[in-house]
Fold this sequence. Notes:
By secondary structure, the chain is mostly helical. The chain is 80% helix and 0% strand. The longest helix has 31 residues, at 88-118.
Amino acid sequence: MKKLFLLAIPILVLTLLTSCRPPELEGAFVDYNAGRYDNALKLAKEATEKYPTNAEAWYLLGEIYGKKEMYSEMKHAFDKALANNPTPDIQNKIKNATMYYFQNLFNRGVNNYNTYAKMQDTASEEAKEQLRKSTEYFKMANIVKPDYKAVDLIAFAYSILGEKDSAFVYYTKLTKEWPDSADAYVKLGRFYVVNQKFEEAIPLLEKALELDPENADAIQIIAEAYDFAGKTDKAIETYKKAMEINPEEKAFPFNLGRLYFQKVASGSIDDSTKQQYLHECAKAFGRVIELDPSMKEAYDYKSNCELMAKDYEDALVTLKQATERFPDEGKFWYNLGVVYYNLKDTKKAQEAIDKAKELGVE
Length: 362
């Protein structure tokens, strides 16, 4: 009799354990484990309706929705489970399921994007379809787990597709859902600049710099925004800062010099300021030449600034370099002749002017 009594104990424990789970939920688990997801879904719904504070019922409902690729419903069910004091085991299962579905969907989006990028004709409808598929997977991934990169890639894909309204929605979503991210404001600001809405871009980029004062992308883009919005003084100061952060980028000194030249050309400054701006202009284009000696426009700007400032010795050096590198450019020879005349070397001046005439400059 002792043996019979001992054997009855685990049977009793098992009965107690299974009886803790409502019959609807138990049935749902049985059907779920057997792969009968439609019936499992029906029973799990009944369980959550009848036992709305049962975390396990909500967890199972989420798992079933995941199997059926109903990700919004899955997320809702998991959230309900987490709100109803789930066991550590259920919490861990939800975490693992969420990560599994997110990674699976995100990777599928990446695969579609990479397929698009590798296509010979990325402007074809077939290529665009791959890009659209990638956005759908990234959207689903973001439903499962809100993710900055997923939203960013959606916006980027829509930008490539030329669907500006959709791109705007998702770039804006970055700033709303991640308001402490300087990069989010940079992305939206860049979107406005690309679409030539410079005034709208500026406050967003200023916000980015408020969050991250040394953000190189924000500094570069806001300099361009100030520039095109006609805020020349702010553009000049920002291009200077951009040069400090990225001294190897030739676009910054080029644009800085161009703005100084424009200020001089406006004619609305006194002689002292004009000389200062001409000096700054020549200095900026000198830096461009250091970075890229093949940029013809830099020699043109620099030598003109030096001529206007009557810095003939400096202009001589610049124009000699220019004529050596671009011997068929008549205007450089002509300006070299002007420099020699001002330096009282009439013979070399005439030779340079004659060379300019040979090249069609009168």
